[in-house]
Q: What sequence folds into this?
């Protein structure tokens, strides 16, 4: 499989997970405050209004608008990765890259957020 196809497959899986997780949160009445911010009502931030399905950033948090308000998720932190890789802090979170080639992203085994 080509590198582009592999990256697309990885992105597709992350998108499906994010959308599924968002749907679960919308259906649940309670939320965790650990890495999630929830606001009921009109979907607006800093005077700008968003429609359901829109996404926006609140600092480093990624927010998802829905018809009853919005949810924001804090950046995830990798907790384990292959020995040939290492974790690098970015402005808004972390990335795991190969030690020998830090321009190439390495797949982390697990994340916490």
A:
């Amino acid at each position: 499989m080509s590198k582009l196809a592999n990256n697309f497959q990885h992105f597709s899986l992350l998108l499906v997970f994010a959308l599924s997780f968002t749907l679960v949160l919308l259906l649940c009445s309670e939320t965790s405050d650990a890495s999630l911010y929830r606001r009921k009502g009109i979907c607006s931030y800093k005077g700008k209004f968003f429609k359901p399905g829109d996404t926006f950033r609140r600092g480093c948090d990624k927010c998802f608008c829905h018809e009853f308000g919005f949810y924001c998720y804090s950046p995830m932190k990798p907790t384990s990765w292959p020995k040939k890789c290492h974790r690098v802090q970015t402005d808004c979170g972390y990335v795991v890259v190969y030690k020998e080639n830090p321009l190439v992203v390495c797949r982390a085994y697990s994340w916490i957020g």
User: Anything to note?
Assistant: The longest strand covers residues 61-66. The chain has two domains: 3-73, 77-112. The helical segments are 3-27. The two ends are 31 Å apart (CA to CA).
